[in-house]
């Protein structure tokens, strides 16, 4: 009986740990709107006011949200849209269009995506338009007419309902007689990677969106998200003249005490977690972690490198992956190991998996860089340098045929440890194509220290100065 009870408890424990993993992974990966805003409350207040003016009062607006990657641009707009859609009148009327400069690489693709997100594929059909502006205007006009037909249908249904009840009183105040918003649905355009749209031919999409936002047509809000501080310099004069020049800057201006608070809030379980006792123990453990000096040192180093919440989420995700039924809580050791993984050099890790021949070629390139002061080299130079080492040591174990050495050299290029200085010509001989090494001396030496079973003479060759002159 006791064994059955213990099995049941283990299953419940496993289920709760699975829920912990799910809740925290969603928080770290998706940046859900349930996450608290940190250091951007002022910008959030301005943005939600701007969106409400568009959605409720029919006022068109445009704004650029500028900040480095991981500063919270997407989180800011997601929070604002969530709050906006919780307003009853707004949720039924406002439309959203999300575009990304990495996906919509030209205006034609962008227009198709706008049509798809507004569910107007059937309305557009095979119609041919003379210009981009005409096509976009037709889409917004179709929304307007669709809204009017929907309103007429609602009025007809209300009239039939009153007639069926024998009610002859006139309807109380028609909400659809309140300004521009009555004639068409407000549309919110979110343009992620906004700077890439500025590279489209003639910036036609941006021009037309900003032009509509300046006119008394369909009420729209154009929100651009970008990392470029010089974004206005990329805009053409005619596009710039129609932009409102409203900008919001996110700069991760919080200090380390606030960063520590973010760490606690991001790891803590919500009050609605099913098992209150487990949630309480988990949150107490998080509080203890935040007060641990070794954890604070790890977080301080992480904070000094990057204040980005994305990098913090990566650290916490790696620590969370160590949580199991036998290890139900995150420890200081988990965070320290996660920090080592985050700060690990990816190039050095690649070197650990190379063959001894490939390691020898990298050392030969290192010596060529030392001798010729970082000048480009070719395969023949590297091969000659390698042959000096082979002849000096008189080891048959390193005596490879030239085609084998060439294959190893090409593998290093595939791994992107070396790269061509110029674009490869069809007629150029591979042996004489100029290359550049993408590893510095420190990375090479650190990688060799950790290289498994590295031959002693190879390590000595790497530490020798100016090769074998």
Automatic annotation (TrEMBL):
GO MF term list: DNA replication origin binding
Name assigned to this protein: Origin recognition complex subunit 4
Role description: Component of the origin recognition complex (ORC) that binds origins of replication.
Lineage: Eukaryota, Metazoa, Chordata, Craniata, Vertebrata
Domain of life: Eukaryota
Subunit comment: Component of ORC, a complex composed of at least 6 subunits: ORC1, ORC2, ORC3, ORC4, ORC5 and ORC6. ORC is regulated in a cell-cycle dependent manner. It is sequentially assembled at the exit from anaphase of mitosis and disassembled as cells enter S phase. Interacts with DBF4. Interacts with POLQ.
Homology family: Belongs to the ORC4 family.
Alphabetical list of Gene3D superfamilies matching this protein: P-loop containing nucleotide triphosphate hydrolases (3.40.50.300)
Broad class of where this protein is predominantly found: nucleus
Every AAA+ ATPase domain range: 59-235
InterPro entries recorded: AAA+_ATPase (IPR003593), AAA_16 (IPR041664), ORC4 (IPR016527), ORC4_C (IPR032705), P-loop_NTPase (IPR027417)
Pfam families listed in its UniProt record: AAA_16 (PF13191), ORC4_C (PF14629)
Residue spans crossing the bilayer: none
Keywords: DNA replication, DNA-binding, Nucleus
Compartments, record wording: Nucleus
GO cellular component entries: nuclear origin of replication recognition complex
PANTHER family noted in UniProt: ORIGIN RECOGNITION COMPLEX SUBUNIT 4
GO biological process, one term: DNA replication initiation
